[in-house]
Amino acid sequence: MNVFPLILKEIRHRKLNSLLALLGIAVATALYVGFFTTGAAADRETTRLMRDIGFNLRIVPRGESETALLRRGHAENTMPEEYADRFANQPDLSYEHLTLTLKRWTRVGETDLLVTGIRSMVSPRGGKKKPMIFQIDPGTTYLGFHVARQLGLEPGGMLELEGHRFEVAQCLNEAGNEDDATVFLHLQDAQLVLGEAGRINEIQAIECLCRDPNVDSIDILRAELERVMPEAKVIQKRAMAKARESQRLMMEAYFAFAMQGLLVACALWIAVLAILNLRERRDEIGILRALGFGASMVAVLFLGKAILLGIAGAALGFAAGSALALWAGPSIFEVTAAAIEPEYALLREVLWAAPLFAACCTLVPAALAATQDPAQTLRED
Amino acid sequence: MLELVNIRKTWPAKSGAVQALDGITLRIEAGELVTVKGPSGCGKTTLLLAAGGMQRPSEGEVRIGGTELYALSTAGRGAFRRKNIGFVFQLFHLVPYLSVLENVQLAARDATAREQGRVLLDDLGLGDRLTHRPAELSAGERQRTALARAMVNHPKLILADEPTGNLDPENAALVMQRLAAFRDAGGTVLVVTHGTDADALADRSVRLAAGKLAGA
């Protein structure tokens, strides 16, 4: 009799054992396929988000030293406020938010203050988005925690700066940074106080990119901006891009670790089932050897079963894993949901990997079956 | 036909080696049915398995039709067994997931033998049970299936280990008659048993006690 029908009949006969082994292979395959299908979606999503996020930029006066800027936290020099309008009116550029600031340290009595004028601009395409930073009405001020305490001011009180009076609209909570020593004013008020009419020392551009989707290089963006703002230079803030990249790498490492644990668990599951199958078939192995079947033939019966279940498990697991990815993926990866589809390249991969995996898990039981002494079982009559 | 020459088989044990077979010499000719009798544990099954090439003796030679069985490789011995020896066991040892016909055809070495299996089963009164599984058969039917499997390749030798041990008298008589018919057709039969079912049909009976043979 041919080995193949013998294996099929045994699988049909010992349904529970075969079903459990099939389940182990299918679950391992489904999770593998599900992970990689959603993983591909995650890559697309990250790429797309990265592209759409654009760049977060600091635009400062050209003569400003980067190291001095980093040490001080703001530029010492100034540039025209009108640059912000030039930026906003560039047809090839888009942005989400622009924040114009003018900062300068000053002193009131014994108290050092960082006078900060702010004006926020929201991109027209941002619709009803709120500005990234609070809006300060002209004639009012927001006081940092220490400034308010040292000057003994509360909301409703009046602050006098360089002969100008401002109503305290709000006293901010302790922040633990330079904000605690800051007096926030409307940009025009700050320009008045500091004698810098029409000047600013920084524009922060959030989510800025070229409108042409094929041109998103920071170098092109920088060149374009510096062309329209000749007194300015552009510095890229990379923190957000790095954070997203780190998050993606962390998720990949986590899933790779989880997948290894899962594969070991499935391997043990399949091996234990094969051992149980071997115990059930000791009698059968004895008579097959008595009938003249060789040890290799006995091993083939076990390995062949593992391979057949591996193929079936791979197909089943691929379908289940793809279904899982199609079901759960769109709610996780909203932007690229439509692009989530079965990864048919994975089917080819699992159709050889799963049978190989199952056969490897069954190697020890198959070897035990092949080397089993048939006389021992036949003597147990 | 079957020649056992000074067969010894020693089993290792914690309390020292156990001598299962101690210098057994036995010759059975073609057309002869011999029973080996003895109490349980006297070494009957070990003798039968050694004679069938399933249990290498510690010493001695087993020859079947002039071929020294243990001089062959494991694979060679398997092929020789398939062609020349049929086994019948007390517990039948049928493959549970194969039908009656498939169990017999499993042993068949060619298409002719496979067809012969159907004829044998018909002859043994199992013509209407060909597609049944062993679990659906009575003990007598299972042993008749095992007998057909043992005979399917027209072997020279049938080795039967307590073939009637689990059967009612009617089926026991039927099985022994078939073994006798095989003998009458020129085959060689060695039956190990502690019962008396085979006495009337056996040409010779030898007794095994404490690994030694008496009456050979």
User: H/E element string of chain B?
Assistant: EEEHEEHEHHHEHEEE
Number of helices of chain B: 6
Gap between N and C termini of chain B: 15 Å
Which percent range fits the helix content of chain B? 25-40%
From the alpha-carbon coordinates, what is the Rg of chain A to the nearest angstrom? 35 Å
Helices and strands of chain A, in N-to-C order? HHEHEHEEEEHEEEHEEHEHHHHHH
Sheet having the most strands of chain B? 6 strands, mixed
Please explain how this structure is put together.
The complex is a heterodimer of chains A (381) and B (216). Chain A is of the alpha+beta class. Chain A has two domains: 4-49 and 246-380, no CATH class; 57-236, no CATH class. Chain A has helices spanning 3-13, 15-53, 66-72, 82-88, 145-151, 187-194, 218-228, 239-280, 282-290, 295-332, 344-361, 363-371, 374-378; strands at 55-61, 79-80, 93-94, 97-108, 111-122, 140-143, 158-161, 164-171, 182-186, 199-200, 202-210, 232-237. In chain A, strands 1, 3, 4, 5, 6, 7, 8, 9, 11 and 12 form a ten-stranded mixed sheet that branches. A two-stranded antiparallel ribbon of chain A has the order 2-10. Chain A starts with a helix and ends with a helix. The mean pLDDT of chain A is 84. With 216 residues, chain B is α/β, with parallel strands linked by helices. Helices cover 32% and strands 27% of the residues of chain B. Chain B contains six helices and ten strands; from the N terminus they run βββαββαβαααβαβββ. In chain B, the strands form two sheets. Chain B has a six-stranded mixed sheet with strand order 6-7-8-3-9-10, sandwiched between helices. Chain B has a four-stranded antiparallel sheet with strand order 2-1-4-5, with helices on one face. In chain B, strand 4 (59-64) and strand 5 form a beta hairpin. The longest helix of chain B has 16 residues, at 169-184. Chain B is globular. Chains A and B meet through helix 1, helix 9 and helix 13 of A and helix 1, helix 2 and helix 3 of B.
